[in-house]
Structures are given as C-alpha cells and as structure tokens.
Amino acid sequence: MSLTNSLLLHALLLLLAVGGIAGLLTGAALVLWPAWLMQVNKLANQWIPTRQVDRLLEQAIKVDRWFYRHHRISGGALLAGAIFLVYFVIALLNKGSVVSGLSKAYAISPVISEILLDTVALSMLLGAAFTAIISLFLLSRPSMLRGFEQGANQWLSLRRVLKPFEVSRSGMDEYVFQNVQIVGILLLSGSLYILAAVTFWLSHGSAV
C-alpha cells in the first residue's frame, strides 16, 4: 500500500472512530437523560432564512457599458486570447507526452487518454473560434451584438429554487422526541459497531 493510500485510510479510520465516540456519548445521554435533548433542540433549531443570500446573488453586475465604451480594447484582448489559445493547442501542446502522463497518473489506457485530450482540445478550439468572432464584432460593429446581448441577458430569479429550503420539516424531530430512548439505543448500537469494526481492522490490518 502506498504512503498516500495509507494516510487516507488512517484518516478515514480516525474520522470513523471520532464519530463512533461522539455517537456513543450522544446515545448514552439520550438513554440516561432524555430531557437533555429538549435543551439541545432549543439551541440547535435556529431558523436561518435564505432570503438574504438570495438578495446578494440576485444583484445585477453590469459590465456591458464598459465593453461598449472600450470596445476596441476589449475586442483586441479577446482576439489576442483566442489567437494564443489556438497557438497553444496547435503548436505548444505535446500530445504524446500529455497522453502518456494521463495514462500513468490515472491508470487508463492511452486510447481513452487520447480521446479525452482530443475532446478537450476541440472544445478549446471551438471556444477560441467563438471568442474570435465576438472580438471581431467588438472591434468593427459592436452595435450588432445588441440583439445577442438582449437574448443572453435574461433575468433568472433564485427565489423559486431556494424556497423549498425555507420550508420547516419537523417530522423527524417529532419522532425522535416521542422515542428518545429508542433512538438512543439505536445510536449506541451503531456507534459500538463502528468502534468494534475500527478496532478489529486496526488490530488485524496492522498485523497483515
């Protein structure tokens, strides 16, 4: 086993052990002191509305005027970036070394690595071509982009997407409050099982 895999495995086992100990203590508290859950619930169940986050995300950032006012500078910068991207893909990209590096790093066949590289390179070339077309419009006739701009600048509100997150769901809380000791016993059992599994693996895995 490599050093990286060993460190990841030990970190995972440590995380499971900490979670098992925390679950063990919580389960014991639920069995011995059921009223403790009520006090914790009062502190934990704080309502956090998403409306403020929604307002921040819905603030429009308008940069259109800057592009139209400095259309030659922005168009030239876009055209230079597109030309460099094409030059990089055609002249600077060493396909053989990249395919070999991908195959060795991710243990995949060279054929798949070549297909992935070709897909990425084709996407970069298409993006560069689209950018070059936009830059030519900005350099010569920026007014022709008005129709494209109006079609692309559609307002999308996140209010409907975030609304389900603001609905209170208390079904699980009610079940736990009605069966506090049963939940505590289940939590104790699961935590003991996790700790036993971690201990067993550490004792037998280190021996192997």
Name some characteristics of this structure:
208 residues, mainly alpha, 11 helices
Query: Count the helices. How many?
Result: 11
The structural class is mainly alpha
Radius of gyration: 29 Å
The general outline is: flat
Explain this structure to me?
The radius of gyration is 29 Å and the shape is flat. The model has no long low-confidence stretch (mean pLDDT 77). Helix 1 runs antiparallel to helix 11 and helix 6 (95-106) packs across helix 7. With 208 residues, the chain is mainly α. The chain has helices spanning 3-32, 35-44, 51-57, 64-69, 71-92, 95-106, 110-140, 146-152, 159-162, 171-178, 180-207. 7% of the residues are buried. It folds into 2 domains: 1-59 and 181-208, no CATH class; 61-154.
Give the structure's gist in a few sentences:
The chain is 79% helix and 0% strand. The chain is an all-alpha fold.
Q: What topology emerges from the helices and strands here?
A:
Blueprint: H1 3-32, H2 35-44, H3 51-57, H4 64-69, H5 71-92, H6 95-106, H7 110-140, H8 146-152, H9 159-162, H10 171-178, H11 180-207
Helix pairs in contact: 1-11, 5-7, 6-7
